[in-house]
Amino acid sequence: MTTITHTGRRYFLGLLGGTALIGAVPGIALAADKTTTASGFKPDLEIELRAAPDQVGIWSGRPTSVWRYQAKVMKGDAHAVTTLPESYLGPIIRVHKGTKIRIHFYNDLPQASVVHWHGLIVPEVMDGHPRYAIPPGGKYLYEFEVGNRAGTYWFHPHPHGHTGEQVYGGLAGLFIVTDDEERALKLPDGERDVALVIQDRSFTRDNQLRYTGGGQGMGGMMGRMNGFTGDQILVNGHPDYTLTAERKPYRLRFLNGSNSRIYKLAWDDGSPFTVIGTDGGLLAAPVSRPYVTLAPAERIELWVDFSSRKAGEELTLRSLSFPVSGGGGMMGGGMMGGMMGGGGSGLANGAEFSVLKVKVGKGVAQAEKLPERLSIIAAVTPQQAGNFKSPRIFSVTAGRMQWGLNGRVFEMEEVADDEIVKLGTTEVWQLENEATMGMMGGMPHPIHVHGVQYRILERSVHPAAMSGWSSLSAGFVDEGWKDTVLVMPGERVQLLLRFNNYPGLFVYHCHNLEHEDMGMMRNFQIKA
Ligand code: C2O
Ligand code: CU
Ligand code: CU
Question: Where do the domains of the chain lie?
Fold first, then answer.
């Protein structure tokens, strides 16, 4: 029997005789009963989710030791969980909006962990806040109703200081939500709805993962300040990924599941993308982009018409080069950033490489029309926020060898006065990225906020930073719902956020996972 006590809080989780889980969280009752809890929660879908060490065959020869999520459906639709073949990535969970889901999470890792449902709006105790991390051998019971609109969400560990290491080890999975509005559109479905997780990794000569993002010494320090980039690009856990497609339209859902690499995705023949969705689901209408910029944790959904391709044609999705170092200062990564490109990887952030190949089939082409309107999304203006005249400002700051937010770093239980918002209000948040770190200069930071999906109101750029910014800006898709936004060096981004869901303590942070782990994260409180 293990009992885990969170000192300072009236909250504990325990394994009683291996089955029961008791939580003393006000308002939320966690109980051992398999079908109903004290709060009357009746799950439509019940899953067992386990994080454990495992081995997968990524390369020929010795298998790679990884950490991975494995799930099985205990109750409800058996098709709600699918596994990626021969991959370290976790299962894909697919549910309809409104599904009540119960997840029994078992931590079989040698480290403390907790699961965060990135992009889903769930109560505080279900959100995977680092203070709810459970030790090796521990169990956590998640129960929530999926209230998000249709979209591509995901889940990953969130223990403080070890998120980068655990995600890198293989712990991440997709959580795909559908709803009636989306179903009615009859978008490409089944085999033609493809989820693609892009990640970078480095391997030792005997096929083992190499991670220096959290290490000691000069390499570890640079790794933490820049973020870790690997020199191999994997899609769904596989190098040299090839998608075989019929000559029909496809829906491709991309997640950048990398710790800190930014992708500038483009087709090798220069044909533009038709973007239909972002982090929080479908856009109001499709938009076209010459390329798409995808920062860590961001998702993008493309509608790709392979019916217009020649039978047997092959195409390559590439990540184009962009400057992370534009001469130091506010221009970008500066000398050190450009040279080191992360924790000692041979493939710097901003380098060009191939991401995946598509082999188009030889069958008869079958065209389909993409609807002109996809979803109802209301227009937003700053005036919708109570504080539009004086936005809440969050500035990236550079401390001694450490990035921060408004001069602060993460403290488990701490929330400052200017980090408290009122439930039911709408606010403008202004993210400012003007800090530079010595010779490294400035860096792009993908800023994520838990507990909400937000809208992007506007971006403004310092003239001195314009050239670095414009090398990626045509690939931003700011039209829809977002939970992560890339803020470039010298840039200010205004967000509109509605705090109309759950009260509680949530986090906002940089989703460069090495930055997050070193403390570029803060609590904010939604006060009832
Ligand atoms: Cu995907 Cu707090 O993170
Ligand atoms: Cu999140
Ligand atoms: Cu950052």
Answer: 7-179, 193-360, 382-527
